[in-house]
């Protein structure tokens, strides 16, 4: 077995000394994700992978070396929910240097990018051609496309088009042994037609590398389906509901998803609006005092006739359920003025600056931990009530900030939900309350069949996997074939 010093020497030979770090501060920074201090596994050494103008990179050499010496490898691509945080030390690979946009094809409506390209860079490239990703992601420059595919890819547009993973036409993947494979449409790259569909008269293996937590292979290149779109075609609305109207809000959401007139619905509760109102970024007088739920909604329309039709449908459904239109939120939290105020907006396809949403939340509320799960939209009220009760039981209820709910409404009548808890990661009592709350959430969630979209932490327990019976065993067998030394993000997939 190699010593750490010997590993560092070899890595510096592969990528260059300036791309390898053993600095303790760097190690601490790279262990954190959106789970922050709740889960810690300090990496041994950090490696940054970059590509040159021709797209050459050292990823295959690094993986081959790590595989030979059984060194754990975790791909790191900006913020994340835990899949980019090492659970067993080893080497986090910083993929942000593999960020090239390789091709935009307006005629065939696809884009090819390196796995480390940011969502911001992809949208910037597409906008030059009047195109956009149907799902335009989250966190702007802080998330790379390979990481989003490894987790599925939440983002605005899920209500109409689904996950980022649903947009994947093809992938280029580096296997643990250093071998490169092309899947789906990218297997057709270099022909007269070029990439155009993922079906290549072979079993569709793209799914092995989507939602796989980087445990099957490293995504080095991505081909995505895109659509025609302009920022001017997106029209923003926000309706509020009282706490006792949750069931009616739930029914309204289900109607809108079924109608297929809505591009995106983002469901939050009061916590997102407390500190902006207190600091005067929103005028309290323009928001109902008893507003508890905020349904931020986007329509797409190319002309006034299309907008009028969709808007009529939207207003009828929301208002018949008792919702109240709040233009103040649509203007300042969603529209073109959002960036100016440092709020969670999506000007220029939801591009946020360095002091965007995450920075604002931490600055005003302290560290936060999240859950990441999906369940049927018809169970929204039940799950929300259960989480509220769990927070009260754990002593982390706050009238203004609880239950801290931030969710995407998806096209398959489901909800991709985030529960938040704000806490001090250096306070043992706070961390204890956090862990107790997470255990309660996992208990009632697992009992009902919740699907965890970031099942990377052992605290989730074995039940979500055991429920899959022989499918779970098959995935483990495939993992053994693809990665027999278990070097790729060990412990993250199961």
Give a written overview of the molecule.
With 494 residues, the chain is an alpha+beta fold. Helices cover 34% and strands 20% of the residues. The chain has 17 helices and 20 strands. The strands form four sheets. Strands 12, 13, 14, 15, 16, 17, 18, 19 and 20 form a nine-stranded antiparallel sheet that branches. Strands 5-6-10-8-9 form a five-stranded antiparallel sheet. A four-stranded mixed sheet has the order 1-2-4-3. β8 and β9 form a beta hairpin.
Tell me the overall shape. Answer: globular
Based on the coordinates given, report the CATH architecture of the largest domain.
3-Layer(aba) Sandwich
- N-end to C-end Cα span: 26 Å
CATH topology of the largest domain: Vanillyl-alcohol Oxidase, Chain A, domain 3
Number of individual domains: 3
Helical proportion, percent range: 25-40%
Task: Please summarize what this structure is.
With 494 residues, the protein is α+β, with helices and mostly antiparallel strands. It has helices spanning 4-15, 24-31, 59-68, 119-127, 145-151, 158-161, 246-259, 271-278, 304-320, 327-334, 338-341, 347-350, 357-365, 380-394, 428-448, 463-466, 470-482; strands spanning 20-21, 46-50, 73-76, 91-97, 101-105, 110-114, 131-132, 168-174, 180-184, 218-225, 227-228, 234-241, 264-269, 293-300, 324-325, 367-370, 373-376, 405-409, 414-423, 451-452. 34% of the residues lie in helices and 20% in strands.
